[in-house]
């Protein structure tokens, strides 16, 4: 399986190269040359780790022997707290919640980042190389990436988070890690600033090569590939791989729901994908009107979705334009220079056939958390509530018919957002026992301005590759 960039570059790269490279050198994002077909024959009866190996195999191709891949997925999902890994709970006549928060850092990010840490290890040992990982987080990717990479010999990891804009639990999950290869950095800015800094650092090719930079955000294709698995798991669980299943996905950087789209491209019967947005609703406005136009980021109760430039959206654009890297580059230039662009009505109609969307404001999020608790007993985190509220709107609008099962992805454990949960339902959910002393552990983080030179100096002085 070979990979190409959304901006046209077509180097001869396999899965391992793409894993280690992260962002394409022309600034685009890697995608497989074509989506591999996945037959559901033979998937029934596999446990989650077995399913993960089967789904990842065509992406990984000859970059790793199948036996190694199977061992890797067993190790990866062996650290999850729930025997079912991604348990499904019924919350309505044909509505379900898929809990994706039973990994080490209590958010869906663990599904891919526990695998990524191990994939990095495998590739770097084989090549005898080291990497410097640079990532941006609006709250959850950071701790999951740190957990996946902490203490690994061949890796130094630098994670940028927007100062004062993540929950206390999210911050502490990053800043209380003691391993010397971990660097949490509070940036004076919002998540879009952090993500732009990461992309700018990758864009400085001399710096990137000197540091051997790698990515853990969903700009890294391996992240998306590993997230495809739970969509397959849902389709197998509710439809035996034959009946179409719809999903509602609280969205920010568009990596999670894009993985659902890839599952559909691989031939899985994935029905509508409902994109749930908080008031930072650039994605919802796009799916409604075809215009992708950035506005300022507003802090909300669902901080991990406080994003206006959704990096994976570029992968969808690549498809919308018929895989035209030149047009994608022009659109991304227009986003940077004039704040947006628009797609033609015919292209929008095509997109709307596969995606629906809804904007859920702060009051609606609280009301949804209250309603779900009262009606089903489920305590939702605010991101998940955006997803279930969006699912409700999609059903009401007829975007997902009553006879189609609809799975809402529960993307984070409610204990990561105790203030929001308390506001909604009147009590603070407890952290799992292993994180019980999180709020007492000493913190260690650097403060940096939103400035590329300052970031590069910081990394250059600490990355062991630079020594
Ligand atoms: C808890 C939670 N829900 C939803 C999202 C949005 O997912 P994505 O950025 O893949 O669209 C995030 C951040 O990625 C998150 O941390
Ligand atoms: N919501 C994310 C933002 C980064 O998304 P990613 O999927 O590109 O890593 C977070 O929690 O950091």
Automatic annotation (TrEMBL):
Keyword Lyase among UniProt keywords: yes
Domain of life: Bacteria
SUPFAM superfamilies assigned: Tryptophan synthase beta subunit-like PLP-dependent enzymes (SSF53686)
Keywords: Amino-acid biosynthesis, Lyase, Pyridoxal phosphate
Cofactor(s) demanded: pyridoxal 5'-phosphate
Pathway: Amino-acid biosynthesis
EC number: 4.2.3.1
Pfam families found in the cross-reference section: THR4_C, Thr_synth_N
An MF annotation (GO) of this entry: pyridoxal phosphate binding
Top-level EC class: lyase
Residue span(s) of domain Threonine synthase N-terminal: 2-77
GO biological process: threonine biosynthetic process
UniProt modified residues of type N6-(pyridoxal phosphate)lysine: 109
Catalytic activity field: O-phospho-L-homoserine + H2O = L-threonine + phosphate
Family statement drawn from the similarity comment of this UniProt entry: Belongs to the threonine synthase family.
PANTHER family: THREONINE SYNTHASE FAMILY MEMBER, THREONINE SYNTHASE-LIKE 2
Protein name: Threonine synthase
Lineage of the species this protein comes from: Bacteria, Pseudomonadati, Pseudomonadota, Alphaproteobacteria, Minwuiales
């Amino acid at each position: 399986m070979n990979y190409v960039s959304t901006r046209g570059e077509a180097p001869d790269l396999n899965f391992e190269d793409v894993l280690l490279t992260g962002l394409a050198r022309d600034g685009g994002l890697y995608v497989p040359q074509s989506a591999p077909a996945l037959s559901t024959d033979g998937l029934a009866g596999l446990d989650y780790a077995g399913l993960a190996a089967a789904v990842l195999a065509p992406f990984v191709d000859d970059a790793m022997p199948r036996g190694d891949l199977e061992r890797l997925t067993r190790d990866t999902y062996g650290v999850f707290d729930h025997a079912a890994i991604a348990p499904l709970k019924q919350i309505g006549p044909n509505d379900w919640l898929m809990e994706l928060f039973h990994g080490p850092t209590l958010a869906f990010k663990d599904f891919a980042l526990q695998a990524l840490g191990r994939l990095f290890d495998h590739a770097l040992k084989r090549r005898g190389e080291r990497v410097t990982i640079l990532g941006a987080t609006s709250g959850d990717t950071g701790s999951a990436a740190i957990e996946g990479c902490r203490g690994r010999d061949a890796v130094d990891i630098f994670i940028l988070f927007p100062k004062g804009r993540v929950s206390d639990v999210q911050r502490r999950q990053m800043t209380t890690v003691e391993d010397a290869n971990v660097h949490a950095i509070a940036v004076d800015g919002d998540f879009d600033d952090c993500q732009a800094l990461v992309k700018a650092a990758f864009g400085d090719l001399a710096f990137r090569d000197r540091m051997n930079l790698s990515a853990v955000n969903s700009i890294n294709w391996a992240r998306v590939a590993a997230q495809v698995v739970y969509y397959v798991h849902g389709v197998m669980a509710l439809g035996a791989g034959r009946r179409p299943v719809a999903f509602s996905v609280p969205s920010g950087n568009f990596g999670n729901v894009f993985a659902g789209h890839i599952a559909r491209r691989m031939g899985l019967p994935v029905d509508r994908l409902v994109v749930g947005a908080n008031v930072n609703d650039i994605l919802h406005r796009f799916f409604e009107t075809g215009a992708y136009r950035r506005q300022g980021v507003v802090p909300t109760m669902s901080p991990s979705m406080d994003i206006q430039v959704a990096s994976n959206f570029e992968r969808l654009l690549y498809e919308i334009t018929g895989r035209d890297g030149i047009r994608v580059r022009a659109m991304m230039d227009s986003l940077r220079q004039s704040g947006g662009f628009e797609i033609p009505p015919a292209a929008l109609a095509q997109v709307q056939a596969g995606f629906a969307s809804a904007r859920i404001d702060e009051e609606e999020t609280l009301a949804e958390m209250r309603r779900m608790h009262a009606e089903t007993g489920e305590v939702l985190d605010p991101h998940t509530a955006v997803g279930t509220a969006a699912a409700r709107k999609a059903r009401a609008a007829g975007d997902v018919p009553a006879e189609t099962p609809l799975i809402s992805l529960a993307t984070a454990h409610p204990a990561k957002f105790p203030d929001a949960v308390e506001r909604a339902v009147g009590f603070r959910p407890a952290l799992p026992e292993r994180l019980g002393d999180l709020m007492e552990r000493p913190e260690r983080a650097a403060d940096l301005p939103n400035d590329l030179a300052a970031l590069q100096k910081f990394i250059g002085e600490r990355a062991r590759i630079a020594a």
